[in-house]
Each structure stands twice: as C-alpha cells, then as structure tokens.
Amino acid sequence: MLAALLQTGFGGLIKIRGDRCWRDLTCMDFHYETQPVPNPMAYVLHRSPWWFHRFETLSNHFLELVVPFFIFLGRSMCILHGALQILFQVVLIISGNLSFLNWLTIVPSLACFDDATLAFLFPSGPGGLKDRVLKMQEEEAQGPRAVQTYGCVARRLVNLAMGVLIAGLSVPVVLNLLSPRQIMNSSFHPLRIVNTYGAFGSITKERTEVILQGTASPNASAPDAEWKDYEFKCKPGDLRRRPCLISPYHYRLDWLMWFAAFQTYEHNEWIIHLAGKLLANDAQALSLLGVNPFEGTAPPRSDALTNRTLPHLPAEPPPPTLEMCRTAGATGPAPRPCHHLLGAPAPRGPPSEGS
Known about the structure:
This protein is of the alpha+beta class. It contains 14 helices and six strands.
C-alpha cells in the first residue's frame, strides 16, 4: 500500500494535475538540466532525441499511475510491480543526484517479493539457511501455544489507538489526493506522521544559479574591483567543471542553493548569514564549499550575491559555440551552457552587526 501511495498519490497525480508539460510530454526536455544537482549522466540524457524524451514521460506516467494498481492483482502482478518500481528508482538514481530519496523509495517495494520469490538468494542444501528456518518453524508449530497476557491486550489497544490516530491524520491528505486541485508540500502536521508531499509537480524551464562572490579590493564599488566566485562542492557554478556524482550522499547546502534561486534573499536570510561567515573566513562555513578563492590570503573585504541564468540547452541541435556565448554577453567555453549576470539580489558589502 505504501509503495502504491508513494508512486500514485505523491508522484503520478501531482504531475498529471500540475505542470502542463507533463500532459504535453515535454517535461523531460528540461528536467535533466534544471534538476537540483545534475550528475554526468544527466548531460548525456539531456542530449537524447525528442522522441526519447516523449517515451520517458509516457513511461513515467505508466509507472506512477498504472503500475501501482498491479499490487492488487495477485501474486504475479505484485511481483511485477515491485520489479518495475525498483527498476524505475534505479534509473532515477543513475540520472540525477536526488540524495537518498530514491533509495528509500525502493524499500517499500521490497515487500512485493515473498519468500518463494527470494528463495534463490539463500542456500537450499542440508544445513543451509532455508533448512534451518524450516526446522525452527516446525518446532514452533509443535510447541505449546502462547498464553495471552495483559501485556498482549495492552499492546493491541496501543496498536488500535495508533491506527485510529493515523487514520484521522490521513483525512486531509486523502482529500488533497482526490482533489482536482491537488497541492504539494504546502503544509506539514506538527506530529510529522502524515503529511502532503509531492515530487516534481512543476518543472522549471530555465536554470538560475545563486553565485556567491567576494573581493579583496579596498573599494568594492570601483570598476576595477576583482570579484571572485566561491565554488560549491557539487552545485553548478564553474562552466568548465563537469557535473559531480554524490548519490546517495547529500550536500544539504548545495541543495538549498537550488531552492534559493527561486526567491530573493529576503526569503532566505540564511544566505546573508553564510556571507557573513565567509567574510570572517569561518573554517566551518568554508568546509561546506568546494573552492575558496581567498585560500591562503586575507579574507575578502566584501561579499555579494548574484544570479546567473543558464539558458535552455536544446536537446538535439548542437550546443552554442564560444562566439554565440560572447554575442550574448556571457562567458564560458562550449559545449557547456552559457551564463550571464542578471543582477544582485543582495546588497554588496559586509554584514551588519549581529548577522
């Protein structure tokens, strides 16, 4: 049930009711380059032909909207459901750095395989694991029946109360699931038992990155002030660096920077605190980054936050040349996406006291 709910409710329905590109079968034209932290395979898959992206989107709808019902159609279909869902999650693991999300999603699907299905994994000869388990079951069946105690009754009452609690907390989640205007990640219950989640209900069509910069120039506003970029461990930044591979590990700061690009710094005050730590050359803050441009020198006199947008890289035509990048006022060698300065979402300069 959990496996079916995860795929149909939190994955499939939110997509088909969300961004129009899921219904137009065009979402995969953008997903690989605009996902939180792309990996090397994401670049390769993004360059696939258009018909392959349509096939990917249709396959996603089939796996998240149709296959989950296989679990109710008997043993064989239940096993097929488990195998397809695990294969689906493995493909997602290969195509992006989504931390441990897909690894955890595999766990409920393991319940689709009964003992007979998994028997080939264990030795079956005399004295083997299956032989020992069979003897233990026979001995337990022949032994005296356990006498019901007050402890057993109390445990059943606790289980019943827990079931009623979860059922009650599930009402708004189920109503949201059945609603034609299903929403995702909008509210979370304080008990954090049953919540409304959703995955990729909308797909961004353009990638915008928040770039942290620093300068050691006495006058940060001077035209000749040299601003240097701080590079993160995995977040896209330097166009000459290939995407990284970190799954199932998770760089939380890199992940948050992706979300920060959708808002201004007023909605993400932690970025200002991070900039203050970098101005102070804080060792713990610097350990979260990949490259400190001021390593071995005095800390920067001023920090700044800027946005850089990575224009959509078409899937089939050749990538933009260096001349095209220069014409657009951007920098960076092909075949990487070009970027250009959008503006500063945060004021340049040292943080105020207390920040």
